[in-house]
Design a protein that fits this description.
Number of strands: 0
Structural class: mainly alpha
Number of helices: 15
Helix content: over 70%
Order of helices and strands: HHHHHHHHHHHHHHH
Radius of gyration: 21 Å
CATH class of the largest domain: Mainly Alpha
CATH topology of the largest domain: Growth Hormone, Chain: A
């Protein structure tokens, strides 16, 4: 039975939960490693190990939850209910993650980070995968599904802006020297705001999609994907090429995010306020502003060429610019942030290429496999992130960098630059090369 067209209010209702969810993701990527290593004093080696274990669990839980979603849906449990459960867990554990006991030992900090981050990632999975699966269940129309995904991306952009700038907003309320106590307080207050955003967004989404979800329950798949379906996915050359590119780029993004505050503070001698109130917001604003540009380019040249060129150029800029930026001067760094922000705006085209692979597979097999494709995609990226965090932790530990120091030797600065600029840049260039060679099917006309 064909479902009636989606009502207009369902589109923003579906996407609004992404504001809080993406804001939490961005805050964790930009600030969590720095919070535990520099502000709380946890060893980078222990921090990297905790991050790796938590993210590896996240990768495994993606597959488990994606398979469980089908079984739960067959029992009549709504995706909305599962999303709200995940939102509650995510909100509570985000606050817990940024509230370790004062005076904790190294082992206590390590265990707190490990347990809290595992719970945060579990909540994120329980929130994110049902939302992804709903885009396929709420409608069978490719055009309506694209509008749902556009809503999700649009609200996610707001979350990106909030998550990158929120700690800086709290710091800006205090004049004078930025102390460790103020930095810790800004992170803790940000966590409470993010928790509230997650809960409010999930509640609004569940309420606004409830009627549509009930009307489309009959479209839920009745069987778990088998081994043959999984193997057929691995034989999809277009998807696998995009996956390889995504994994390599995930390593680059993880190293970049983990070292960003370290690079700007120790290598460029920029203050916390300059980074959180100027560099990060400008970078985020440029990502948002560049979206229409990349949409126009994708309409004219397709998704693959603009995406591959953007990712390759992003790496080239990193290799050239970051080793050459002058210390204690803000404007050149802002200029690089503008350029890299515009190039990062093309990243959404990569995930859109996966939907083209899914559509092509559906024509051949007469089955929709969104949950399976995105579970493998997200699990691959998370395994890459886990490996990257181990490398960051080990690298910082071997170099003997004191992250709480105000300055380091020129030799240690060169080590940070090699990781943050050259290594990350080469990874992005390799990712762009893989994207350029991917055999991704053309998108279906809608």
């Amino acid at each position: 039975m064909q479902a009636p067209p989606i009502k207009a209010y369902v589109y923003p209702g579906y996407g609004i939960v992404s504001v809080g969810k993406v804001a939490v993701e961005v805050t964790l990527q930009l600030y969590l490693f720095d919070f535990y290593t520099r502000i709380l004093g946890l060893s980078p080696l222990l921090a990297g190990l905790a991050f790796a274990v938590a993210i590896l669990w996240d990768a495994i839980s993606d597959v488990i939850v994606s398979l469980g979603l089908i079984a739960i849906r067959r029992q009549g449990v709504s995706y909305g209910a599962l999303m709200w459960t995940g939102a509650c867990l995510l909100a509570c554990t985000t606050v817990f993650l940024f509230s370790p006991a004062i005076g904790s030992t190294q082992m206590q900090l390590f265990l707190h980070l490990l347990v809290a981050y595992v719970l945060v990632n579990t909540g994120m999975t329980l929130l994110d995968l049902p939302q992804s699966s709903l885009s396929a269940e709420l409608t069978t129309s490719a055009n309506e599904r694209n509008k749902l995904l556009a809503s999700r991306m649009g609200f996610g952009i707001f979350g990106l802006a909030i998550g990158s700038a929120l700690p800086g907003f709290f710091i800006a309320q205090h004049a004078g020297v930025v102390s460790d106590d103020l930095l810790r307080s800004s992170r803790e207050m940000s966590a409470w705001v993010l928790a509230a955003m997650v809960l409010v967004g999930a509640t609004v989404t569940v309420c606004m999609i409830r009627r549509r979800e009930r009307a489309t329950q009959h479209t839920a798949p009745r069987q778990l994907p088998g081994r043959s379906e999984f193997l057929s996915l691995l034989k999809d050359r277009g998807f696998m090429s995009v996956l390889y590119a995504g994994v390599i780029a995930a390593v680059a993004r993880t190293v970049n995010a983990a070292l960003a505050l370290i690079y700007y503070r120790l290598v460029l001698s920029l203050s916390e306020a300059q980074v959180t109130q100027a560099i990060f917001p400008v970078f985020t604003l440029c990502i948002v502003a560049s979206i229409p540009l990349w949409i126009c380019l994708s309409k004219r040249y397709g998704k693959q060429r603009p995406a591959a060129c953007a990712v390759f150029l992003l790496g080239a800029v990193g290799c050239i610019a970051y080793p050459l930026l002058p210390a204690s001067v803000l404007w050149p760094t802002l200029l690089v942030s503008v350029v890299t922000g515009v190039l990062c705006g093309a990243v959404f085209l990569v995930e859109s290429m996966i939907t083209d692979c899914i559509d092509a597979d559906a024509i051949q097999t007469s089955k929709r496999k969104e949950a399976l494709y995105f579970a493998v995609w997200k699990s691959g990226l998370k395994v890459a992130r886990a490996i990257a965090f181990v490398c960051v932790g080990v690298g910082l530990h071997l170099q003997g960098i004191d992250l709480g120091a105000e300055s380091v030797s020129p030799q240690l600065k060169n080590g940070i630059v090699l990781l943050f600029g050259v290594f990350v840049g080469m990874c992005f260039m390799l990712s762009g090369w893989y994207l350029s060679r991917a055999r991704v099917p053309a998108p279906l006309e809608t």
